[in-house]
Design a protein that fits this description.
heterodimer; A: about 625 residues; alpha/beta; Rossmann fold; 2 domains; six-stranded mixed sheet; two-stranded antiparallel ribbon; 25 helices; globular; B: about 80 residues; alpha+beta; SH3 type barrels; about 35% strand
């Protein structure tokens, strides 16, 4: 029987780093509280003894306040050994959780992590004294570099339960104060440039321009370098090497037939077209490796950097005020940003939000308005051909929906969103090795998750086409698609594929020879109408059946409305650049004038006035 | 003794937390973060347009939304 060890500690103390160092299992690590929302387990073998090591979501207390923390509390109850990871730079706050763990009857080891950073910050710790005061083994580590891990493993058999009796929170803090007073000394040190930057990025006057610069630069880098890589891949790999190969294969198959239709697709003017032929080996391979992957590499590089240096929580502070207008608060920015990579981890990150109300709001908003990197790169690549103005219409429309939908939902969902309580980690220089690992993991994940869906989607649609089902679908949906949205009826099948994968669906608009307006309408519908299969699965899990049903109705209504409006307005009433400006302006105006329903309710609750429903009981609990 | 809320404090001002006027959930959550009556804190930022308040507590930083900051009262040093 292998023993179960659980890593427990405050958020952002390095549990996941320790976990991946000890087990060799790769997990995503970042520098913001709440990176891990679900537990991961791995094997650790020491001599003849096997352990199951579990990396639990961070928590400040064993009395959980959000879903991620509930997971941890239940893991501690089942553990054979608990390794309490403590941030050595912040002993006092971390020891509160330690005091609770010492009250449990579970063998415990305390790990003082980041002792290097603590020393740098002038924190001097008396480890033998601490050991004595806690009554359990204490080991010092620098998890990122692997220092102290051997000692930790050697100490595992010596883990003993603490002897504290259950006390009140006040008594716990008194005990913590006593321990810290005896085992820690703070010496003077100089403020580093990173710390000076920390304050600057929080104050509105310096922080807002800084945020604008960071975001602008990020997008510039992703788009600029992404495009370069796209071109390079096309000119070096696809044109001279891949295309002739596929062409030869097509020739062998006689340029037609069932398998040719599935694998190569249709020939355009007698030739294979990598983008438009719609075969698994043509469009399928090209969309993944020629368009999406080049952008994804740079997106994840930048995201990894922002996560690890600790900028995201600061962005959350700056955006807090704006998010309040939408019934959310600053922390919800983090799932939104992650959503630009992939909506699946974004929905999972929303678990850090306190109430069901805000989780529902955040998940619905992000799955409608935040296009993932794969979708975004297809949209940029294809709509961009009609000119940047049309691309700006798409972005402006998404922004407009984000704002108005958030506002409307905030007003009609009963209750309110309690305002934010969030720890802000110090800036840290990203660790190159872990950055590299994270990028690799994410790209691998994309390939493993996306490839089957992309290829499957293309196969399915070609099959449906051969069987004549697409004609039936087209006829059935014609009134909506032709009448209301002004798209050719064949677009019905793209909507169908969009249920599986959005990026391929966008590519499928290409052979339809659409006008700029039609393409924009089609792209907006595809981005907003429904999440892809993977996101749908995780959303249903997070929101429950009723929540998902409610969310789906909102998605379809929003999407249809947006499509109809764009079809009516774009190019007929306003040229694209003007329409984009009007949408952004109107969105900002609506936020300023109409937002803050949740805030008003929170104030009312604070003043003891009656509030419509409490923050957690509403119709789909 | 003068009590002001975190929202009203000036940037750079320090003080000792005296009362937290909130539900059990909020008190427990703040408690776990080390923010409890008797604790010394320093406010770090200027609040702009009901934005969040950032405080220093044991040399770590915590951001509190305006709605909550208004209900945490601090005895400031004069």
């Amino acid at each position: 029987m292998s023993q179960q060890i659980v890593l427990v500690g405050n958020p952002n103390v390095g549990k996941s780093v320790l976990f991946s160092q000890l087990t060799g299992t790769r997990v995503v690590i970042s520098n913001y509280p709440g990176t891990t929302v679900e537990y991961t387990s791995g094997q650790l073998v020491v001599g003849s003894q096997k352990y199951d090591l579990i990396d639990a979501p961070g928590t400040y207390s064993l009395e959980p306040t959000c879903r991620a923390e509930e997971v941890t509390a239940s893991l501690v109850a089942k553990a054979d050994i608990v390794i309490n990871v403590v941030d050595a730079t912040n002993l006092e706050r971390n020891l509160y959780l330690t005091s609770q763990l010492l009250e449990k009857r579970v063998p415990l080891i305390v790990v003082l992590n980041m002792v290097d950073e603590a020393a740098q910050k002038g924190v001097v710790l008396n480890v033998p004294r601490l050991r004595e005061l806690l009554g359990v083994p204490v080991v010092t580590t620098v998890a990122l570099s692997g220092e102290g891990l051997k000692e930790l493993v050697a100490a595992l058999p010596r883990a003993v339960p603490g002897g504290r009796k259950t006390f009140s929170p006040d008594a716990r803090w008194a005990w913590v104060g006593n321990v810290v007073g005896k085992a820690q000394r703070i010496t003077h040190r100089h403020q580093t440039w990173l710390e000076a930057l920390e304050l600057a990025s929080l104050k509105p006057l310096t922080g807002v321009p800084l945020a604008a610069a960071v975001l602008f630069l990020s997008f510039k880098i992703i788009i600029g370098l992404g495009e370069l890589l796209c071109e390079a891949v096309e000119q070096v790999l696809f044109e001279p090497l891949y295309l002739p190969l596929v062409d030869l294969f097509s020739l062998q198959m006689g340029r037609e037939g069932f398998w040719h239709d599935l694998l190569i697709g249709t020939l355009i003017q007698g030739e294979i077209h990598l983008e438009e032929s719609m075969g698994v080996l043509t469009t399928g391979v090209f969309v993944v490796f020629g368009v999406v992957l080049p952008f994804l590499v740079f997106f994840y590089l930048i995201l990894g950097f922002l996560e690890d240096c600790g900028y995201l929580p600061r962005l959350a502070v700056l955006m807090d005020r704006i998010m309040h207008h939408l019934g959310l608060h600053g922390f919800a920015v983090i799932p939104m940003i992650l959503g630009f990579g992939c909506n699946v981890p974004a929905v999972m990150a929303a678990r850090n939000l306190e109430s069901r109300r805000e989780r529902f709001l955040a998940c619905t908003l992000l799955s409608i308005t935040i296009p993932c990197a794969a979708q975004m790169s297809m949209v940029m690549g294809l709509v961009g051909r009609y000119g940047g103005a049309y691309l700006s219409v798409i972005i402006a429309t998404l922004f407009f929906i984000w704002v108005t939908l958030g506002l409307v939902l905030d007003r009609f969902l009963p209750g309110y969103t309690p305002s934010m309580i969030m720890e802000i980690p110090p800036y840290r220089l990203p660790h190159l090795k872990s950055q590299w690992q994270k990028l690799g993991m994410r790209l691998q994940h994309f390939l493993v998750e996306a490839l089957p869906f992309i290829f499957g989607g293309i196969l399915l649609i070609n099959l449906l086409h051969i069987l004549g089902v697409t004609d039936y679908l087209a006829a059935f949906f014609a009134p909506v698609i032709q009448g209301l949205l002004g798209l050719p009826r064949e677009a019905a099948s793209t909507l169908f594929v969009g249920f599986l994968r959005k990026d391929v669906a966008v590519a499928m608009l290409l052979p339809l020879n659409l006008s700029a307006r039609q393409f924009v309408v089609g792209a907006i519908i595809l981005v907003t109408y429904f999440p892809c299969a993977a996101t749908f699965a995780i959303l249903s899990k997070e929101l429950g059946v009723k929540g998902m049903a409610a969310s789906s109705v909102i998605m379809l209504t929003t999407s249809l409305t947006a499509g109809i409006m764009l079809n009516l307005l774009l190019d007929t009433v306003l040229p694209p650049a003007w329409l984009a400006l009007v949408l952004v302006g109107l969105g900002i105006l609506i936020v300023v004038l109409g937002g803050g329903a949740s805030d008003r309710r929170e104030s009312a609750a604070g003043a003891g006035l009656p509030v419509v429903g409490k923050s957690d009981d509403y119709f789909f609990k | 003794m003068k009590l002001v809320s975190l929202a009203e404090m000036k940037a750079g001002q320090a003080g000792i937390v005296r009362t937290i006027d909130g539900g059990q959930g909020m008190v427990t959550r703040l408690q776990a973060l080390g923010l409890h009556p008797g604790k010394k804190i320093t406010k770090l930022n200027t609040v702009f347009q009901k934005g969040p308040v950032v405080i220093d507590i044991n040399r770590s930083r915590i951001a509190l939304g305006y709605g909550r900051a208004r209900r945490i009262f601090v005895e400031t040093e004069q």
